[in-house]
Amino acid sequence: MSLELRLEFDHWGKELRFSKTRFKNPALNLPDSEMADRFHVGELAGRYPAHELKSRIFPWHAPAKGLAVLLLRSFAEGKFNPFLLEGAQGSLASALWDMVRKQPAWLTTMFPLPGKAQLQTTYFQLSKETDKAGRTIYQVTLNPCWNSAKFSVLVDGKPAADDYEKLAREIANAEAPIAPEADLDVWVWSDRQRRFVSAREPGALPVRFQTKLWVEATLYQPACCYLVWRSSHGQAHSLYPWQSLDFSGAVKDRPVSEVLRLPAAKKGAKRQTFFIDTPAGVETLVLLVRSRPMPAAELRSLKDLLSLPADGLAFGEAEYYRDFEWREADEAPGGQPKLGLAPWPVTDALDQFHQDLINRFKTRCALVQGLSFANAGTTPKGGQP
To answer: Which of 65, 213, 279, 351 is deepest in the core (most CB within 10 A)?
Structure first.
C-alpha cells in the first residue's frame, strides 16, 4: 500500500507531501510481509522561502506514524480541530512528542518555516501529565495554523475514502520495525539564506573553503552507532563515539536513541561547527549501527577499513549529493536482496566506492548508512585549502 497525505498551506503557498512507500517506487505493490516502509516527503510549488526541497525518503518509524495518525484523526474531526494525540511512554504520542522537542533534520525539513525551525510554537503544542497510576502521559496537539491548510489523502495514487479514522487505526496498529533505523544529514551554512540548511536542499551545495557545517544523526531505536567522516583527501576522522577526531582517546560506546548533533555543544555554550579546510573533491560520512558495542579490535581497525582508494571519485554534472544505505533486514540468506529489492546500483566510481564501504562493514553492522557531498575547494586569496 502506498499512502500519501498532502497538505497545502495557504499562508506559505506550498504543498507538503507525506507518503508511505516502498523506497522510491510505490508501484511495486508488494504484500505487507515484504514491505520495507519509508516515510516520503517532498515540497512542491514553493514560493517562500525561495527554495524547493527535493523528495526525501524517511524511515516509517514511530514518530512518523504518530504524525500521520495525528493528521488523519484531526482531519476526521473536521478542519484540523485541535485533536489530541496522547499516550504513555512507548506510544506513538510519546515518540512524536520526543521528536518535536528535539527537532531533528527529518522533521524540520517537512514544515515551511523561515529561519530556525520552531515546531513547538508554530505547528504543535506539547504537554504531559501524570495519571492516577503514576504514569507520564504525553500529549501532542496541532496549533490553530493548521486550520488554513488544505488536506487530501491518496492510497495507491487514488483519492482515499472518507473514513480517515479507520485509516489512522490501520497505521497505529501496524507493527513497528524491529531493525535499527536512523537518519543522517549535514547542515550547511548558507550565505544567501543566512542560516543553516540541509545539504539535501537545492543550492546548499557544494561546500567551499571555510564553509561551516554540522552533522546530525537520529537513532529511532536504542542501538550502538559509529559515525566517521572520510574527507576529500582520503583521511578518516572519528566523530562519534570517540572523544577525538583521530580514533584515539576514550570511547563512549553505549546504546543510544536520540538526536546526535556533532560537534557536540558544551552545556551553556553556543552551537559548535566544523568547517571545510580540505581540497576540492568528495566528502563522505558513514554511519554504522549495531545492537551491541563493537569489539575493541574492530574499533581499532575502522580507520584502516575506511582507507579505500578514492581515485576518480566525482559527481555527475550538476550533482552535488548522493546517499547510500544497506540494512541487514533487507538481505535474504546467501547475501542477496529480499524479494522486490534491487541490488545496490553501481554506475560510476562513486557508486562503486559506496558499494565497497557497504561490503566492508555489512558483516559487522545491522545498518550501514552514508552520504557523499561535493567540496568545491575554492580558496580565498592568499589561502591554502
So the answer is: 65
